[in-house]
Amino acid sequence: MPWPKHFGWLAKQDIAVVSDDDIVSLVNRSMLVQYRVRLNREKKTVEPGGLWSEEYLPQFALLYSGVYCRGVGGLSASDVCDKFKKFVNGKSFWIGGKETIGKGLAKFVVP
């Protein structure tokens, strides 16, 4: 299978195709899990609901997804897809929270 042009920035040896059965275990092993505690400073105790965890994907993780477009507001499905591609392709977006600590930055590439 030829190397996709839109993955040109990524070395071929950095890619692995994994079955659906194996991916869950690999993702769980590679994710950083950070546990957080919100304290009541006066009482020196954990606030109610103040214990949680945050999961982070490894840096340079590659996620792949599909996008389905439909016509809306007088635009055809093809026009909507074209507008979507122009809006996101090659741009970086913050996904989720934690942008103030540098988490969730993702670059979108639309083939």
Series of H and E elements: HEEHEE
Q: Roughly how many Å is the radius of gyration?
A: 20 Å
What ranges have pLDDT less than 50 throughout 5 or more consecutive residues? Answer: none
Alpha-carbon distance between the termini?
A: 16 Å
Beta-strand content: 15-25%
Strand order of the largest sheet: 1-2
Short overview:
The protein has 111 residues and is α+β, with helices and mostly antiparallel strands. It has helices at residues 20-30, 77-88; strands spanning 32-40, 45-56, 92-94, 105-107.
SSE topology sketch:
Layout: H1 20-30, E1 32-40, E2 45-56, H2 77-88, E3 92-94, E4 105-107
Antiparallel strand pairs: 1-2, 3-4
Structural account:
A two-stranded antiparallel ribbon has the order 1-2. It has a two-stranded antiparallel ribbon with strand order 3-4. The model has no long low-confidence stretch (mean pLDDT 83). The protein has two domains: 1-64, no CATH class; 66-111, no CATH class. It has 111 residues and is of the alpha+beta class. The protein is 21% helix and 24% strand. The chain has two helices and four strands. The radius of gyration is 20 Å and the shape is extended. The longest helix has 12 residues, at 77-88.
